[in-house]
Design a protein that fits this description.
Blueprint: H1 2-22, H2 49-55, E1 60-66, H3 71-86, E2 91-96, H4 101-110, H5 124-132, E3 144-149, E4 152-158, H6 163-173
Parallel strand pairs: 1-2
Antiparallel strand pairs: 1-3, 3-4
Length: 174
């Protein structure tokens, strides 16, 4: 009886062991999803239009990170337009995280906003790093709004802004 039990355990175990010996386990890395807005990390944003037009100047800059597929982002665009008209001394820009440049171009053709994404396409990674490091977009939801004063990020708002609160915040910073 003991021999039967041992054979019932050893034979299947040996078969499994030998079978595994002939199975080749793939060591190929999984495919990486490439951002279709093909960005190139420049290491520095010093040569970017964003740096030249917004960071090299004194004063406040508001950067809203958004996407065409983000309903709260689209909903708050009129609020930013209103605040921008009321505060002509503050520069307002939008930075899209869309992966489809054609969808972004189509949206921008129908909705006039100061989006800097396409003109800074080679510097997107550098801009993200400037705004808050490499983990910026992985750990935050959008919409995401940054306030930059004299070339330095001084505040970050996660989620949709409230007109009254954001306007008051800008007034205290100026």
């Amino acid at each position: 009886m003991l021999k039967k039990i041992i054979l019932m355990i050893i034979i299947p175990a040996a078969a499994i062991f030998l079978g595994l010996k002939f199975i080749k386990i793939s060591t190929v890395a999984p495919p990486i999803i490439v951002n279709r807005l093909k960005t190139k990390f420049s290491g520095s944003i010093e040569d970017s239009p964003f740096q030249k037009e917004y960071l090299n100047k004194d004063g406040l800059v508001v950067v809203n990170v958004w996407a065409t597929w983000c309903k709260p982002c689209i909903k708050e665009i009129p609020t930013f337009k209103k605040i921008s008209k009321e505060n002509p001394n503050i520069k307002f820009v939008f930075l899209s995280i869309d992966e489809d440049p054609e969808k972004l171009k189509s949206f921008l053709a129908k909705n006039i906003i100061n989006d800097i994404t396409l003109q800074n396409i080679e510097y997107i990674d550098a801009i993200k790093t400037f705004l808050g490091g490499n983990g910026l977009f992985e750990n935050s939801s959008i919409p995401l709004t940054f306030i930059i004063k004299d070339g330095k990020v001084i505040d970050k708002n996660v989620g949709s802004i409230d007109y009254n609160e954001f306007t008051a915040q800008l007034k205290t910073i100026q």
